[in-house]
TrEMBL record, chain A:
This is Nucleoside ABC transporter membrane protein. It comes from the Bacteria. PANTHER family: ABC TRANSPORTER, PERMEASE PROTEIN (PTHR47089), GUANOSINE ABC TRANSPORTER PERMEASE PROTEIN NUPP (PTHR47089:SF1). Residues 8-23 have a biased composition (Low complexity). Its main location: membrane. One of its GO terms (cellular component) is plasma membrane. It is found in: Cell membrane. Keywords: Cell membrane, Membrane, Transmembrane, Transmembrane helix. It holds the Pfam family BPD_transp_2. It comes from Methylobacterium gossipiicola. GO terms for molecular function: transmembrane transporter activity.
TrEMBL record, chain B:
It holds the Pfam family ABC_tran. This is Nucleoside ABC transporter ATP-binding protein. Keywords: ATP-binding, Nucleotide-binding. It comes from the Bacteria. SUPFAM superfamilies: P-loop containing nucleoside triphosphate hydrolases. Belongs to the ABC transporter superfamily. It comes from Methylobacterium gossipiicola. GO terms for molecular function: ATP binding; ATP hydrolysis activity.
Length: 381, 499
């Protein structure tokens, strides 16, 4: 059954745990009525996949039940969530447009989580990146032909600059990055409001957003539906992320930083540099996502372009288990939820928050399914 | 007068390994009773039985003459047995009173806190403790935290006090103060059991001493009636004869430790001016009682901790403590004592753990692409060569390996390239005889190939068996050096007399 190494009592050290472990013969097992719960030492990849799929299906079923309870017929659900997305080019395109920035913030979160850096500040980094890109746009820095690449680079730099402080504080003095990155979101947002209500207010209509970007500063359309170059850009970044996390030596080092950085240090591996590089890349990607939304969809800097993306990114990375192909799949899935949710809003008067509810239900189910990977259940007869 | 605590015939084994065999102790009210022995002699296990943390497989426990069954810490508490553990059980963010209240398990916070405060102040006054009761204990010094622990068991009404290695983390003055307090408690009628391996303390403070070795009681005596050297022989036992294999050719110094000084994370200075050299082709064994700076020495050598001052020169690589210099690149191999902390990542596969050692060398692909197939085949070859068993494939999690096989995996990785210098810290701890001798054979082979090997072990037998030269470490420095074969008693005496 269980490997003896983990169930063996540790003499002396942890008295409290040892005390609890004494009475039952198998301390790793517990009984709930006729159900016996044991710790699972090893789960095969196939089992993990099956359990995840089960969690996802349960979540979808719960979500469907909520929508049916809200008065939408099951047939209409299938129509909105499956048929419309597959058959209507507008809906399919809308999913892709939604999915591109979602995939990038998901990748940003995955990179940071891969080195156990809990980057809650993706929205702040998006804002910092978009502000940097807008500086390039408003001041017409560089020749028009190079304007977009310059904006992209500025956005990446802005995003990583916004995460640099938290990561240095964490590495130097152990400051909790969850707090620092979260709070820097508010700093970035208030700086954005200051700019939009102050120096960058649109002179043409006095609205609190920046001037429209010039055409050379907007991501061009691809020529099918309303898709822009944001989509290929997201594709390239995802490909790069896949290489970085799954193919390259750096990806291997991130897994050691995730599993046991002290072991990495003792092996002479540059753990600090790996953590620094992964988090700076995370910030850069978030900044690029900000640029992508501003230059690809809004065509200006607005107040709320980043709203909600930070938590979507965390959720996508979590469901994707920090892998790039997973991020792609989950981002498209969340994009579908957004798009279908919008039409539910319009045609069935379902409130916008219902979409968040559905997301949350699905995430909870998938998260809970983890229990079945770590534990094994048995019926006692 | 009936003894406060009488344990007889206590046996306890873990996974078939006997930790206690027919052991016992008899402590009377009004005495300080020292329980003396080496690491792993079974002192802590015996005391954990008394405190209800372990249930004995056999044996009898009597408290104040009555036969009792102590089936948990609460039962021990009810019987008036209180233990101050070596690693304090305190909530760092709570102040002393809250910690005491937590241990007492009072349900009403406000009233309970007032009661605890009154009792704690009474006890503090009686013992002359100066202790800020309202500061978070995380901000207190180690000695003050220990006082909180003592206060905790006293407020709970303990009349039988067990202190596990109480002076290990204290300065001499703090230790003397603590022991004076224990004397006062004994005079008031408490029975104090002092778990220790310091002979000096035993001679100075104990009314009676029980010596344990290998899970058995070997003597119970009046400390004034036995000499220090007799006590030493009782603690370390008779010489065990194993086949020593002396070094073939010892060369020039390869690894030089010069005036190395270091502190623990909490600021306590545990390494003081340690100076010694390890020559090519020899095993230099560091003997010493645990907690005398060995862990910090190993951590500094591995590059995971910075020294306060001093240097470690590896011939040809410069100062390993300097910024940017890593011993690993210069041929340093390390078998850390804390296998789960420094040697392996239990949640990663065996192959990933094996590859971690050479991933920067280019053997498993360059920066662009990691060669998973090369890793897999190299791991399979190493697992076969080093006899790593218990895994179906290299893709299995390393955390599932048993202790001996995990250690073999570590050795396989560290010795994948012939090392120039080796750190082996308690390399056979928790290993069975076969696995231990396999590790020893690897160390000897590396030595005979010309590597400088630093062996740090709290197991004196292991040091005596493997070393070509022995340094005794105490209070963070090398206090004595012995050529081998060394007299076991002489080394043992150097270990404990300086402590």
């Amino acid at each position: 059954m269980d490997a003896p190494s983990e169930t063996a009592p540790q003499p002396a050290r942890d008295g409290a745990a040892a005390a609890r472990a004494i009475p039952p013969a198998h301390p790793s097992r517990r009984r709930l009525g006729r159900l016996s719960v044991g710790v699972r030492q090893h789960a095969s990849a196939r089992l993990q996949g099956a359990v995840l799929a089960g969690g996802l299906l349960t979540g979808l079923a719960c979500a469907a039940a909520i929508l049916v309870a809200a008065g939408i017929g099951p047939a209409d659900l299938v129509q909105e969530f499956v048929v419309a997305i597959v058959t209507s080019p507008e809906s399919a395109a809308a999913v892709l447009v939604q999915g591109a920035p979602l995939a990038i913030v998901g990748l940003a979160a995955a990179l940071a989580f891969r080195v156990r850096f809990w980057n809650i500040g993706i929205e702040g980094q998006m804002i910092a990146g978009a502000i940097a890109a807008t500086v390039v746009a408003l001041h017409d820095i560089g020749p028009p032909a190079l304007r977009l690449p310059l904006m992209l680079a500025a956005a990446a730099l802005g995003g990583s600059a916004w995460i640099l402080g938290p990561v240095l504080l964490r590495l130097r003095i152990g400051l909790n990055e969850i707090i620092s990155t979260l709070l820097l979101n508010y700093v970035a947002f208030n700086a954005l409001l200051h700019l939009l209500y102050g120096p960058w207010r649109d002179p043409e209509n006095n609205f609190p957003n920046s001037q429209l970007y010039e055409p050379s500063e907007q991501l061009a359309e691809l020529g099918w539906q309303n898709l822009t170059w944001a989509l290929p850009l997201a594709g390239v970044l995802l490909l790069g992320g896949w290489w970085l996390l799954s193919i390259s030596r750096f990806g291997f080092l991130t897994r050691i930083a995730e599993a046991n950085p002290r072991m990495g240090e003792a092996q002479g591996l540059p753990m600090t540099r790996v953590i620094l590089a992964a988090t700076l890349a995370s910030g850069a990607l978030a900044g690029i996502a900000g640029f992508m939304i501003c230059a690809g969809a809004e065509h200006r800097l607005t107040q709320s372009f980043a709203s909600g993306y930070g938590f979507s990114g965390i959720l996508i990375a979590f469901l994707a288990r920090n892998s790039a192909p997973g991020v792609l799949a989950v981002a498209l899935f969340v994009g579908t939820l957004f798009v279908a949710g919008q039409s539910l809003q319009v045609f069935y008067q379902i409130p916008a928050s219902a979409v968040q509810l559905l997301q949350a239900v699905i995430v909870l189910c998938v998260a809970a399914s983890d229990f079945f990977i770590r534990h094994r259940l048995r019926w006692l007869r | 007068m009936s003894p406060a605590l009488a344990m007889t015939g206590v046996s306890k084994s873990f996974d078939g390994f006997p930790a206690l065999t027919d052991a016992g102790i008899t402590a009377y009210p009004g005495e300080i009773h020292a329980l003396l022995g080496e690491n792993g002699a079974g002192k802590s296990t015996l005391m954990n039985v008394a405190c209800g943390l372990y249930r004995p497989d056999a044996g009898e426990v009597r408290v104040r003459g009555e036969r009792v069954s102590i089936d948990g810490p609460k039962a021990a508490k009810r019987l008036g047995i209180g233990m101050v553990h070596q690693h304090y059980r305190l909530v760092k963010a709570f102040n002393a009173l809250e910690n005491i209240l937590l241990a007492r398990g009072a349900s009403r916070y406000g009233r309970g806190l007032r009661e605890v405060e009154a009792a704690a102040r009474r006890t503090c006054d009686a013992l002359g403790f100066t202790l800020p009761l309202d500061r978070p204990v995380g901000l207190l010094s180690v000695a003050e935290q220990q006082r909180v622990e003592i206060l905790k068991v006293l407020v709970e009404g303990a009349r039988i006090l067990v202190l596990d290695e109480p002076s290990a983390v204290l300065t001499d003055r703090e230790a003397a103060q603590m022991l004076d307090t224990m004397r006062r408690l004994a005079d008031e009628g408490c029975a104090v059991i002092l778990v220790t391996h310091k002979l000096g303390e035993v001679k100075r403070y104990a009314d009676r001493v029980t010596v344990m070795r290998g899970g058995r009681v070997v003597a119970s005596a009046d400390p004034d009636a036995v000499s220090l050297s007799e006590l030493t022989s009782l603690v370390v036992g008779a010489e065990v004869h194993h086949a020593r294999v002396p070094a073939r050719r010892i060369g020039a110094p390869l690894l030089r430790f010069a005036a190395l000084t270091g502190a623990r994370a909490d600021g306590l200075r545990v390494l003081n001016d340690a100076t010694f050299v390890v020559r090519a082709g020899e095993i230099y064994g560091i003997a010493g009682v645990g907690g005398n700076g060995q862990t910090e020495l190993a951590e500094i050598l591995m590059g995971v901790r910075r020294p306060l001052s001093g240097s470690i020169e590896l011939d040809g690589a410069g100062d390993l403590c300097a910024e940017g210099v890593r011993g690993r690149g210069a041929g340093l191999a390390a078998i850390p004592a804390d296998r789960a902390g420094y040697a392996l990542a239990g949640s990663l596969s065996i192959a990933d753990n094996y590859a971690a050692g050479a991933v920067l060398s280019g053997r498993f692909g360059g920066w662009f692409r990691l060669d998973r197939r090369a890793i897999r085949s190299a791991t399979e070859a190493a697992m076969a060569a080093f006899d790593v068993q218990g895994a179906r494939s290299p893709n299995q999690r390393a955390g599932l390996l048993s202790g001996g096989n995990a250690q073999k995996l570590v050795v396989a990785r560290e010795f994948a390239d012939p090392p120039r210098a080796v750190l082996a810290h308690s390399p056979s701890r928790g290993l069975d005889v076969r696995a231990a001798s396999a590790v020893h054979a690897r160390l000897r082979a590396a030595r005979d190939a010309g590597a400088a090997i630093l062996l740090i072990s709290e197991d004196l037998d292991e040091v005596l068996l493997l070393s070509d030269r022995i340094g005794v470490m105490s209070r963070g420095r090398i206090v004595a050096e012995f050529d081998t074969p060394a007299k076991r008693n002489a080394v043992g005496a150097a270990m404990v007399h300086h402590a």
